[in-house]
Amino acid sequence: MSVWVGGRLSPGGRIVHAMLLPRLLLAAVAGCGGTAGAAGPAPPPEPARAVEMFLDAAGRRDHAAMARLFGTADGPIGDRGGTLGCAFRRVGSWIRLGERCLAEGEVELRMDVIAAILRHDAYRVRFEEAVAGRGRTAIRVGVDLEQEGRDPVEVPFVVIRRKDGGWLVEEVELHRVVG
């Protein structure tokens, strides 16, 4: 099971009239409060390091750090780009040019659920392998997760190369832990 990062809204295939666009933009700005996510350390230079940092943050239930390490090639889920950036993302999602802007509370809830599932006593990175058929460089990182009272469980993470060269966790097969 992959963790769903975002959703797409469709305007139902209707053409948006030019006079309506400013109103839509204002509505999008009103719906996106807040500022960009808190600045954090530089993106990890290696795929396995991104997974290690994500698991360490999950172990501390540090949702902000997790949100800086989880996302797509476009950037972390926690980087909302401020009010204006959020507005453009929201309008872009309506016409399928990008993902919708997530509210800070929604990001925190998603990271909390992932942290709860990935709670662990220890972990060990076992392998890295290329993921074929992707438009961007993606690496599958296999991790043995040790939880109290259970045998180690292999949990694959898909890590994607960011446009700036760092790495982000894009998918986690959580069903391996809860299944």
Describe this structure in words.
- With 179 residues, the chain is α+β, with helices and mostly antiparallel strands.
- Helices cover 36% and strands 21% of the residues.
- The protein is built from 6 helices and 6 strands.
- The strands form 2 sheets. A 4-stranded antiparallel sheet has the order 3-4-5-6, covered by helices on one side. The protein has a two-stranded antiparallel ribbon with strand order 1-2.
- The chain is globular.
- Mean pLDDT is 75; it is low at 1-38.
- Overall shape: it is globular
Task: Report the C-alpha radius of gyration, rounded.
Answer: 18 Å
Give the distance, in angstroms, between the N- and C-terminal Cα atoms.
10 Å
Oligomer: single chain
Write down how many β-strands occur, each being a DSSP E stretch of 2 or more residues: 6
Mean pLDDT: 75
Low-confidence stretches: 1-38
Total of DSSP H or I helical runs spanning 4+ residues: 6
Strand content: 15-25%
Topology order in helix (H) and strand (E) letters = HHHEEHHEEEEH
